[in-house]
Amino acid sequence: MPLLKFPRKLYFIVWVALLRTGAFAQDQTPPDYTAVYHPVINQAELRVVEKKYEEALVAYKQAFASVPSAFARDYYNAAVAALLLQERKETFDYLEKLVAKGVSLDYLERQPVFDSLQATRHWRKFARKYPKRRRKYNEGFNQELRANLDELYARDQYFRQAKGGWRVHGDTIKKIEVANTAKLLGWIDAYGYPGEDQIGVADTLEQLPRFSIVIERQTKARKGHDFSDVLTKAVKQGRIAPQPAAYLLDQQAGRSKYGSRAFIKIDCDECAESDQIGEYLTGNMDEETRQRIDSNRQELGLEPLGEYRLKILHGTTDKRFKLSYTWSVANFVVPSKEAAKVILESLSLKD
Predict the structure, then answer these.
(1) pLDDT by residue (tens digit) across 180-212?
(2) At a CB cut-off of 8 Å and minimum separation 6, what does 222 contact?
(3) Which of 42, 165, 229, 254 has the highest CB neighbour count under 10 A?
(4) 164: alpha, beta or left? (left if phi > 0; alpha if psi -120 to 50)
């Protein structure tokens, strides 16, 4: 596909990304993903929102070329963009990269956007080669580390799910949280932060590996271990995407430092019809707070809050692309109109 003309802002970001990653330089310094990768991915996603799929695909290619390993979610969105442009070879190239990350054939077959491909000989060939590629994936990722990390989640949940839960087993649960944190930090010291290239994505486009629950438990309010340095370093190294990192950092802080929860929805079966109930709402936010959040987001390689919200809203009408996250919208279920009013008093309609 020929190189397209696209907005100057996107061209500048791409040029800087290539310059910093050594496309024009000779050093082999590991790239900083917050500077060279994620800003370009943001531009690709904005072009998706605008339905400018050719420009989006150009930006995806530039982002992928700037780093040694891209993220599965971005390969997925690039595959969809290529499909909509009828670039079949590129579509399957990206699907194969997803398989190499650990995404299962079953998961891909369940995505409606790929229905039109599944009757083609190209898909049949792709499916025939899948078992071999899956074996290669299984041989390549750190299965022992993945199993150990999954065990952290199992330990976290065991006494919480037992009869009596926290009320009966609170002291034991606290000890497990301390032990889990120590184990996780030890493995991070030994292997680096466990990213997609180390532990895969567990068949789906996994947004947060299950071991992340260990970090979520360590809140500032409970004087838990501060993972801020670990997470920000991991984002720069390309071991975790900035969106899940922002969510974990917000959870730890107990407040919205990065605006990971961009909208609020209120569901109330007994409430009368209202223009506000059920809409995508935002909390009241002054300009100073917005600027502070945007500054924090930029340091992590994220788009401004307004662009993040735009992508989330796009995802409510176009399910083909993966542009939002499970935590992007906080859902409240209230029993009555009065309860809904209490929440609504502190909210404003979407920007």
Answers:
(1) 999 999 999 999 999 999 999 989 998 999 999
(2) none
(3) 42
(4) left
| Residue 22, helix vs strand vs coil | coil
* Reduced 3-state DSSP string for 187-241: HHHHHCCCCHHHHCCCECCCCCCCCHHHHHHCCCCCCCCCCHHHHHHHHHHCCCC
Report the candidate in 244, 230, 234 with the shortest Cα–Cα distance to residue 197: 234
Residue from 259, 279, 285 nearest 267 by CA: 279
Sheet with 347-349, edge to edge strand ranges: 329-333, 263-267, 281-283, 347-349
Letter for the amino acid at 26?
Q
DSSP summary character for residue 5: P
Q: C-alpha dihedral over 231, 237, 243, 245, to 10 degrees?
A: -10
In tens, the pLDDT along 211-268 reads 999 999 999 999 999 999 999 999 999 999 999 999 999 999 999 999 999 998 888 7
- Rounded to two decimals, what is the model's pTM? 0.88
- pLDDT confidence bin for 166, thresholds 50/70/90: very high
Q: What is the 3-state secondary structure (H, E, C) of 164-188?
A: CHHHHHHHHHHHHHHHHHHHHHHHH
pLDDT at 156 over 50: yes
